[in-house]
Amino acid sequence: MKVLVVGGGGREHAIVASVAKSKKVDKIYCAPGNAGIEALAECEPISVMEFDKLVAYAKEKEVDFTIIGPDDPLGAGIVDAFEKAGLRVFGPRQNAAIIEASKAFSKDLMKKYNIPTAAYETFDSAEDAMKYLEQSSYPIVLKTDGLALGKGVLICNTKEEAMDGVKSLMLDKQFGSAGDRIVIEEFLTGREVSVLCYCDGKTIKTMTSAQDHKRAKDGDQGLNTGGMGTFSPSPFYTDEVDAFCKKYVYQPTIDAMKKEGRDFIGILFVGLILTEDGPKVLEYNARFGDPEAQVILPRMKNDIIDVMEACVDGKLDSINLEFEDNAAVCVVLASDGYPQQYEKGKVITGFENFEGKDGYYLFHAATKKTQDGIVTNGGRVLNVVAKGEDLKQARAEAYEATKWVGFANKYMRNDIGKAIEEV
């Protein structure tokens, strides 16, 4: 088979690496890709939002199967565009990707079908939102309705913070049109866990659990980012929690989408919070998480193409998902100053230290090739991943491996997965 992966970040590098292990695949293409993906795939500099060009490229290269990585093209209907052209593609159609593309839609869906989540209200007007905040209790959570690169969530501890948040999202348009409408919801306390699931519209199969670290600085301080690191599995995601979520969250979500005429085929990412009142859904995503994919896919035993084709063909019930009985930790190496101001174009050294090292992975997130070598090309630059017998060992191995690669203004959190060592 010839396979095309759409995207160019760490998640897509992890997907490409999994596709490269498939016995069914002999040629991989990626658009736009990055300097790391180029070692495994033929890359073409087409933007993820240039649907016509991507479809034409897939036809020109006689691609058999396309995998969509990021959220923006899914929300804008890239799967529909590929299907219209008669191409096999993995990912939810636009009418199903709305589960991530609109927070208001997903909250209304949960309310309608009694899927456990936080109480909320939706607002199209900043004035109405501010009136609501006058009588709210704090802390409180503000979310942009639309996609905001994983950063459109504000946790506000005071009324003043919340008022400023509404101004920032709705009036100053910090995230553009994503903030035209906002969701204000109750603040829940508990451990957060991410569970990613394969779906074929009727059957849903859960992968191993993971946990992201969104804040830029140690101790969960600083601004929200796209994710500074992850670990898998979560020790807090017990068999009891899994049984509850299968009964009251995962299958009910897929059934609800089907009833709404929005068959969900692809990856459903469920962001959970384990409260005193039981697990509740914080959010849904319609694709692999980034950097969750980087710790989940290396632990998956199945051929990724077998699983994805079963999803597209409505035969997921025939697949038995299997994961290694171990752990993985991912530490993001970022450009200092991310997620605000940072410099690009810094030469990266030490790639050779990862060659032939079993159980270690270096997934490129924002890199490009130049005359001077491979350089930094964004905020989150590299993902250092290591596997271990347990989370403690995987964490130690991952942090040791962060020393193997370097670039000027390299920055990382030093406490990814630290809390798990106390469990």
Automatic annotation (TrEMBL):
InterPro entries on file: ATP-grasp, ATP_grasp_subdomain_1, PreATP-grasp_dom_sf, PRibGlycinamid_synth_ATP-grasp, PRibGlycinamide_synth, PRibGlycinamide_synth_C-dom, PRibGlycinamide_synth_C_sf, PRibGlycinamide_synth_CS
Family of the protein in this entry: Belongs to the GARS family.
CC cofactor: Mn(2+); Mg(2+)
GO term, biological process aspect, one: 'de novo' IMP biosynthetic process
Gene3D superfamilies cross-referenced by the UniProt entry: 3.40.50.20, ATP-grasp fold, A domain (3.30.1490.20), ATP-grasp fold, B domain (3.30.470.20), Phosphoribosylglycinamide synthetase, C-terminal domain (3.90.600.10)
PROSITE patterns noted in UniProt: ATP_GRASP, GARS
Enzyme Commission number: 6.3.4.13
HAMAP family in the cross-refs: GARS
Biological pathway: Purine metabolism; IMP biosynthesis via de novo pathway; N(1)-(5-phospho-D-ribosyl)glycinamide from 5-phospho-alpha-D-ribose 1-diphosphate: step 2/2
Species this protein is from: [Clostridium] polysaccharolyticum
One Gene Ontology MF term: phosphoribosylamine-glycine ligase activity
Domain ATP-grasp residue range list: 107-313
The keyword Manganese is annotated on this UniProt entry: yes
Keyword Transcription regulation applies: no
Pfam families, per the entry: GARS_A (PF01071), GARS_C (PF02843), GARS_N (PF02844)
Name of the protein in question: Phosphoribosylamine--glycine ligase
Record keywords: ATP-binding, Ligase, Manganese, Metal-binding, Nucleotide-binding, Purine biosynthesis
Top-level taxon in the UniProt lineage: Bacteria
Catalysed reactions, semicolon-separated: 5-phospho-beta-D-ribosylamine + glycine + ATP = N(1)-(5-phospho-beta-D-ribosyl)glycinamide + ADP + phosphate + H(+)
